[in-house]
Design a protein that fits this description.
Blueprint (H helix, E strand, L loop, with lengths): L2 H26 L8 H6 L5 H9 L3 H4 L5 E6 L1 H11 L3 H5 L4 H6 L2 E3 L12 E3 L5 E5 L5 E2 L2 E10 L2 E6 L25 H30 L1
Helix pairs in contact: 1-8
Length: about 220
């Protein structure tokens, strides 16, 4: 086998290892209790619409605060169901003047774990309206099923829900849509990390394979 082929195969192996290790690096971003609420949401692709909404409503800094907060986080599928029910686009939803009011209806001050909930319990949200819990069957908050619980963050806890909670005082408004920058959802940061790992693998292959081969000539 020629030195060139050996060097090329070594680079390919290093490159493949980079992709094998990448999911592990990304998984490390999801460890409960080591990140704040926003960081956990950023690390989960299923919360990308929620993250965009938090950015648009300028609530990111608030949910990165000391807290603690309890967040009932709707998935992308929950937002898509809401968009279909309202017959609007995601861009139109994010442009709603009352968006922050909707989002703060998903936040309860303090840290409320699943074990703290009781059937018929009510909790006041950050926007002032109440949430009601039904534990007689599948756990529900208002009309939304709680599908995952106790994702602990440094400043609170996240419970995942399958329906967007809409406060009673929300009123859908017509908005003038203009071309705007798309809010960041964390995908860019993962891409940068992956690119860096690929570059590191290339450098590793160069130092350990190509350079010694060159010196042998």
């Amino acid at each position: 086998m020629s030195k060139f082929v050996k060097g090329f195969l070594s680079f390919v192996i290093a490159f493949a290892l980079t992709f094998a290790l990448a999911p592990t690096a990304f998984a490390d971003n999801h460890v409960d209790g080591e990140q704040d609420i926003v960081e956990i949401a950023l690390g989960n692709d299923d919360f990308s619409i929620l993250v965009s909404a938090l950015q648009k409503a300028e609530l990111v800094e608030t949910l990165q605060g000391e807290g603690p907060f309890t967040v009932f986080a709707p998935t992308n599928a929950a937002f898509e169901d809401l968009l279909a029910a309202l017959d609007i686009t995601a861009e139109e939803l994010l442009a709603q003047p009352d968006l922050a009011n909707v989002l703060t209806y998903h936040v309860v001050p303090g840290k409320v774990l699943a074990g703290d909930l009781t059937d018929g319990m009510e909790a006041e949200t950050v926007n002032g309206e109440m949430l009601t819990f039904d534990l007689s069957g599948d756990p529900m908050v208002n009309d939304s099923m709680i599908v995952d619980t106790d994702i602990e963050a440094t400043n609170g806890v996240i419970h995942v829900i399958d329906t967007v909670l809409v406060p009673e005082n929300f009123e859908l408004q017509e908005v003038d849509m203009e071309e705007e920058d798309v809010p960041e959802t964390g995908i860019e940061s993962n891409s940068i990390l992956l690119f860096g790992m690929i570059a590191a693998a290339a450098a590793f292959a160069f130092v350990l394979v190509y350079k010694p081969l060159k010196e042998e000539k």
